DNA sequence: TCTAAAACAGACCGGTTGTCCTGTTTTGTC
DNA sequence: GACAAAACAGGACAACCGGTCTGTTTTAGA
């Protein structure tokens, strides 16, 4: 965690190696983590520079303004996180409902193992930045839309396979995204991931996969899908 | 909206009138609005002072620190907003599900009439402040808990009246709060309140009030409950 | 009326923030 | 190897932020 590029007395001047992509990645790593933990406004560029071991000149070279940095974090990192956590698992799932359940449980398990809750990157930044700047808002809205679309598409696939005939794909997707987002908000505030499981149970108990009451079907789905934790 | 306490030449010195409660209220009004629109960190005390027409001395007299001001906004204003928007309508509703529907529709209608979405005060501040300070977090968590309890209590009352026998009150409340919170997050980011209606429809289509499929029951509930818009 | 506390005014300060600017070093290209 | 552009270093700076401080006015109570 401390400095390691101090030139020792043995070799007075280390030769510099330009690594623009590596440096850019290092900055994005630190910014992503800091935005997640402290938020955008509470993260100063000075802190980020110190944490990344990067000088002001280098930072400014890759990201002219703080807004540009945040936009890059949103478009590259936050979008990728949603892709990894939700979109890919949803594509890989057998059905939409199984996918939703798998993600909820995987995230809940990951948070419980981690011991604390930092919340959803997308929602964290969306709340802080949506009204601040139209560019922020549009970038964040696009990620929300892609997220919803991935779920709705899965419902559509289910319907083409003869399932979920009574379900409105768009609305189902909206509810899935909303309940996850809100549950994460509560989990973050209470520092307790249990509410994620509460919401999932309520969602499934209230919404059986077909007309069956869905009481005996629930347990055996739990082990079907293993997923890499975030 | 401009200054009105400039002393005109007619009477050289206006007599000052101490109004501690009024001044405190004025500051809280401005702070509440600014936190809602710009967030905590993006709201500077200088802006608040200017907007409220209050000097630094007066502000500091009532709120020694910015944190104290935010805590007052949370405990007095945000809690009151949740009380007015959710808890009171929930107590007044015939059943829990009717109450949830009434609030969703009232808020959606209010937002559509307003033309823009600033989001949920509680969730806005919760996302920005939960991880920054334990005092903030606890205050916000308490409001979430009261919100959930109000809904769960209503489900309990329904159950004592013979309804909702298969429903878990805690989980139902968690899902209602979560889906509302998440829907508001999306509505704020997309600047479109329609997602609130999507979530409500999905919630009710998926969760019929009893074993009936809930297709014909939905429409006639819509006019039953009128509620004061936020 | 006298007095002390509360209420308010307004200047002030140290620290921080984001950005800019001027150099220096590295690197790809002819 | 010459050279221009990219990559990086690091200081400088003006604006701003939150908090403090001193002083004045109002108000309540004896």
Quick overview of this protein structure:
Chain A is mainly alpha-helical and 230 residues long. Chain A has helices spanning 20-38, 45-52, 56-62, 66-92, 96-114, 121-129, 134-160, 169-190, 194-206, 218-221.
Would you mind describing this structure in some detail?
Chain A is mainly alpha-helical and 230 residues long. Chain A folds into 2 domains: 11-64, Arc Repressor Mutant, subunit A (Orthogonal Bundle); 78-221, Tetracycline Repressor, domain 2. Helices cover 67% and strands 0% of the residues of chain A. Chain A has 10 helices and no strands. Chain A has helices spanning 20-38, 45-52, 56-62, 66-92, 96-114, 121-129, 134-160, 169-190, 194-206, 218-221. In chain A, α1 crosses α2 (45-52) and α4 (66-92) runs parallel beside α7. The interface between A and B is large, with 51 and 51 residues.
CATH architecture of the largest domain in chain A: Orthogonal Bundle
What would you report as the Rg of chain A, rounded to the nearest angstrom? 21 Å
The helix fraction of chain A, in percent, is 55-70%
Number of strands of chain A: 0
Number of helices of chain A: 10
Order of helices and strands of chain A: HHHHHHHHHH
CATH class of the largest domain in chain A: Mainly Alpha
Which segments of chain A are poorly predicted (pLDDT under 50) over 5 or more consecutive residues?
1-13, 209-230
**What about the largest sheet of chain A?**
none
Tell me the fraction of residues in β-strands of chain A, as a range.
Answer: under 5%
The chain pair forming the largest interface, with residue counts per chain, is: A-B, 51 and 51 residues
